[in-house]
Amino acid sequence: MPTSPETTALLARCAEALDAARAAGADDVEVIADASRSLTVGLQNNDLESLRSEEDLVFGLRVRVGARSGFATTNQPAELRALAAEAVALARQSPPEEGLRLPTFADALIDDDGVDPVIEALLGPAGGGPLAAQAVAWLQAARGLDPRVVVDSGELSLSSTHRVMLSSGGGLRSWRGAEAGGSLIGMAVDGAEIGSFTWDADRVRAASALEGALDGVARRFVGKCTAALGAGRGESFRGTILIPADCVSDLLLDPLLELLSADRVRQGKSTLGQRLGAQIAVPDFTLTEEGPGFSNFALAPFDRDGAHRARLPLVEGGVLRHILYDDTEAWRSGRPGQRSTGHGQGAASSTPAVGAACLSLAAGDQPWSTLCAAQRAVLVPRFAGTVDPTSGDFSGVVKGGALLIDGEAHPIAEVSVAGNLYAALQAISGISAERCLLMGTSLLPGLRVEDVSITAG
What we know:
Blueprint: H1 5-23, E1 28-44, E2 47-65, E3 68-74, H2 80-93, E4 108-114, H3 117-122, H4 128-145, E5 149-167, E6 172-190, E7 193-194, E8 198-204, H5 210-227, E9 237-243, H6 245-259, H7 262-266, E10 287-289, E11 293-294, E12 297-298, E13 312-316, E14 319-320, H8 327-332, E15 344-345, E16 353-354, E17 359-361, H9 368-371, E18 376-379, E19 382-387, E20 393-399, E21 402-405, E22 408-411, E23 415-420, H10 421-426, E24 428-438, E25 442-456
Parallel strand pairs: 4-6, 9-18, 17-25
Antiparallel strand pairs: 1-2, 1-5, 2-3, 5-6, 6-7, 6-8, 9-25, 10-13, 10-17, 11-12, 13-14, 15-16, 18-21, 19-20, 20-23, 21-22, 23-25, 24-25
Helix pairs in contact: 1-2, 4-5
């Protein structure tokens, strides 16, 4: 299989580390290298703050010596033999684990075509000027939408990543990708009134899509800032909350995914491992892990273990279908034949951890405007709080919220919300027909949830 000169050079370095680990006594070896470049224009107080260019190369080496494992990392290519000796020494000092294995893949998977040439060119020596000029134009456009908006901080950035993996099983992996994106953080100030802090962000794979994405960020950001002005006191009641698409992960999906992680199940911190095939949400709730990503924001086709990524239904029609596994949690489960689901996440600087990479929540059949026409509800555009991953209880503060009365929004000062994740999944009374693609990796609708406790300050 043909490879680029850059891939060939990284593979040669990884082969050097692999051979050195074998010579030092390792039974199985996995080597990963992450080469990255980035160019970032920082924003602060309505102005440019900095221009940073960074390059990094990190090697991670994981070994098995008998029933013991070791991991070491370095950013010095000249120290790969020392890295191998360190990893093997750490393995010999670590406690043994019965059934220990490493993900020693044997096939080749190379996807080196994910870098947009325009982004790649801008990451070169001459890219700083054009990116800074684009940042200035973007900042001016955002503030031009409403002069009351203050951009406290933010950034416009470009980056590329080249990941290479080698296994003592004879397999190799290579992926190259690039992205561009921006974020804005701030508030609206109208005389003596200061609105609630808010933010917005997006990222794309192609430079041709960046301008449109930045325009969307600016418009959403300004809308959130100005919607928080004129806030009055909220009301205390038990009832309905409306969760826009960009808050669904914070309040519901992130804690649910933590409970769907095989390590949580194994440690007894989640009961969902015993509820496969059970109804855990309303029938309209279908959540899918999209594996290698969406067509306009492709991810590496393999995970941190080198396992192939694939679409995986997590919840279908409200019924729990799968738990997330990386390779380590697959063998630790003790279940015969259990394999990784391709959900090992992480960088070369660390060992894998279980996690989702790309999510879609199926759309409903009601327009968002219809969901918002509730007789009385609280809009939750931002949630700052905690969700107990074991009990599912959540509590926190609604930022920049509004009290909806017969569909009319009245901005309110911070109110507290409290409820339970498991109960909330069964109390979803509406899912919007519209969905938003967030940061390229989450395609989500808005939700209406009943029977939540709301307390005004």
